[in-house]
Amino acid sequence: MRCxxxxxxxxxxxxxxxxxxxxxxxxxxxxxxxxxxxxxxxRDNDLSAYxxxxxxxxxxxxxxxxxxxxxVVIAWHTDRLHRSPVELERYITTCETAEVPTHxxxxxxxxxxxxxxxLVARQLGxxxxxxxxxxxxxxxxxxxxLATDGRWNGGRRPFGYEADGVTVRPAExxxxxxxxxxxxxxxxxxxxxxxxxxxxxxTSTGGSWNPTELRKVIxxxxxxxxxxxxxxxxxxxxxxxxxxxxxxxxxxxxLTDSGRRTAWANNRTWMLSGIVACGVCGxxxxxDEVGKLAIPTYTCRVGKCVGRKAEELDRxxxxxxxxxxxxxxxxxxxxxxxxxxxxxxxxxxxxxxERLDGLAGLYADGAIDGQQLRQASQRLQExxxxxxxxxxxxxxxxxxxxxxxxxxxxxxxxAISDLDRRTAIVDTLMTITVHRTKKGRPKGWKPGSSYxxxxxxxxxxxx
Length: 463
Hints:
Elements: E1 2-9, H1 18-33, E2 37-45, H2 56-66, E3 72-75, H3 78-81, H4 85-98, E4 102-104, E5 108-110, H5 115-148, H6 170-184, H7 189-198, H8 211-219, E6 226-229, E7 232-236, H9 245-255, E8 276-278, E9 285-290, E10 295-300, E11 307-309, H10 310-325, H11 342-364, H12 370-395, H13 409-414, H14 419-429, E12 430-434, E13 457-461
Parallel strand pairs: 1-2, 1-3, 3-4, 8-12
Antiparallel strand pairs: 4-5, 6-7, 9-10, 10-11, 12-13
């Protein structure tokens, strides 16, 4: 009789296939014992039968059974074949129709052509399903306990920490703090990722940076010394923080803001593209290279109403920024003053969380009923969200930090190489509208000088 052997293992950490090799060896010994000739071996290595993902070799085996190329199936155990009742029913139907029995090394023979054989198969399938679900529940509970205790549950080495997930790696921790500060000051993820790659700084797995990967690292609660579970912060962690919690909450607020300018995340080459309005149609001017000489120019993309040479408009706006931030009252733009008491916010946040944790105990003791538990939990959760929002707002830093109030604003402005931050600064300070120029040369024009006329550039300062 023609025998097919099916082998499967859910997780192969080394990729060596040793688990399926051992299964195949045991199955071949059984085939010799009962006098079968092995004509095919089907191996699904490192593939779960519980997940529902297609198993290519298993499906190929079913097709061969239906085609009459197999007389007997041997598996190490029935749970190697199935972990799902749906799959089991299809297997039973296929084998019953083709009159193909199943033998297993550990569970004995299964005659699926008889009611008793099908009953045994279904019972074994139910037991296998229960074992998997019970194991998953234990794993979930263990992970929750680790999270509640503030401990790390392993996995890929987190950037900024050693392989134990707890010990800080100073050089990488400095990078996390540096990028966090840059983002708070208006820099873009793309520019920061490009800078890290240019400096030869790699991810924890040795790869290069991209905006998505960098965003994930910066948004991690572990950066602030917090432990999360399924996307929710559950308390303090056992590892040291890399950045202050308030600054972490502030950068999270920036990166998750739905109104954030996604265009700034692109590889910006034009400082004013997308933030300068056309005085004719109201559309935005975009940077482009115009004419046969490819002159860098800001042009209205809607109706080609107005245009200005990029170099001249950038120089004019830069001079306005420097002049405005050189005034004595520039420091007021930072919002410096008597701010909220962050220490008090932290204390209240801890107290509210402790009260929230205590509700479960009160409910278990019968001190409150289910309705009271839901109402109290809802009120405390709302208060927690409000406190966290206040903490984020208090820690938020102006994009003007490092410019307003410094001794040499011009030098500080020239030192900013990230165009994304320059764009953010200009957009924070003013609204710019470019109007059509008048015919002829501008007033006061001198031979050899530019035709740029600042009188046609309308600037409205923001409060």
